[in-house]
Amino acid sequence: MKEKQILAVIDTNVIVSALLNHDGESIPSIVLTNVISGNITPLYNEDIISEYKDVLSRDNFPFRQEDIESTIDLFVKKGILIDSTVPIKENYPDLDDVVFYEVAMSMDGTYLVTGNIKHFPINSMVVTPAEMVEILKD
């Protein structure tokens, strides 16, 4: 893949999928690998970090606490903290998703990478992990 700097908000479901299938070959794993390598710069705020911690710590996932902490540390160290966003009036099936969309919309040229594309407004910046891998190749 070519070197290309991408700004993206990574939905929690992509991180969960990447950690569950950490062989490096699954599409979500490729997205996470590109965060690690610096090809994708994640955008986040405190609510997103809190959601990551909450979801990754659920008992139904086999993640060790140190793996959860190192994953979150990766996003904080490699990412850009967005302190404030402008509320965007849209209909969301899951209100927990609002923050991801608002953070993505706070900076021009940012993508929102999600496995639940139907949870967000139709917008070309909302992409699946597979679409993000294609964007990285272009």
Account of the 3D structure:
It is a single chain. The chain has 138 residues and is α/β, with parallel strands linked by helices. The protein is 45% helix and 13% strand. It is built from 6 helices and 5 strands, in the order βααβααβαββα. It has helices at residues 12-20, 27-37, 46-56, 65-78, 98-105, 129-137; strands at residues 6-10, 40-44, 80-81, 110-113, 126-127. It has a 5-stranded parallel sheet with strand order 3-2-1-4-5, sandwiched between helices. α2 (27-37) crosses α6 (129-137) and α3 runs antiparallel to α4. The longest helix has 14 residues, at 65-78. The protein is globular. The mean pLDDT is 91.
Search tags:
138 residues; alpha/beta; 45% helix
The stretches of 5 or more residues where confidence is low (pLDDT under 50) are: none
Average pLDDT, all residues: 91
User: If you compute it from the alpha carbons, what radius of gyration comes out, rounded to the nearest whole angstrom?
Assistant: 14 Å
Strand composition percent: 5-15%
